[in-house]
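Notes, Module 5: Reading structure tokens.

Key idea: the token line is not a picture. It is a compressed description, and you learn to read it the same way you learned to read a sequence, by spotting repeated patterns. We will look at two proteins. The first is printed below with its tokens.
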Amino acid sequence: HNRQPLIVQVLNGCGKEGAAADIAGHLKNVTIISVENADQFDYEESVIIVWRKGKNKELKSFYRTVGITQDHISFKSDDLYPADVSLIVGHDHPTLKNRLTTPTQK
């Protein structure tokens, strides 16, 4: 039974050019379908929107990797959405990048 990787859309929610692409480049073991601008550029902190809940194991692993806490995760449930999750990169993107580029302690 081959697990399907999480399908991720990375959105720039801070307006800094290249921020979303930069973060997307550091995400491992996921399929990135698009990198684009979010609806607005005033996200102070990065957030995750979960469109589909099926891949629980992959989701948990993604939360851990990105270091986003439960209060920054929202569930919107839309089976027709092209991604399993959207990662909206906020003004905290340097912190986010540090987490993604620093080896995690197991």
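Here is the second protein, with the sequence above and the tokens below, as before.
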Amino acid sequence: VQLSPETPATAATRRLLREGVSGAPVFRDDELVGFFCPHRHEPGPLQGPVADHMTRKVYAVRQSATLQSVVHLCGELRVAELPVVDDDTQLVGRVSLDRALDALSA
């Protein structure tokens, strides 16, 4: 799931729920400009566009990141998932804290 800054926040929230994810990267053209996590806000419907609610400082992990570093960064930032980028900082996916913990305990 990828969003644009102009997407209405209510529509973006419905899409995330439908897709079963807690957040999504926000792109303007091909540039990563934010991350939208509706659960990080006050309860109730979010008004306005995604740009009004997204985190503008985006943290990501490289494909080569260890599971331990993913768990550490998620805990430090208090987030449930992070974007994953390649060596050219192009988005290639995302990793969730739950999946990283599951993999470490396997």
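Summary for the second protein:
- The chain has a mean pLDDT of 88.
- The beta strands are 24-28, 31-36, 61-62, 81-85, 91-96.
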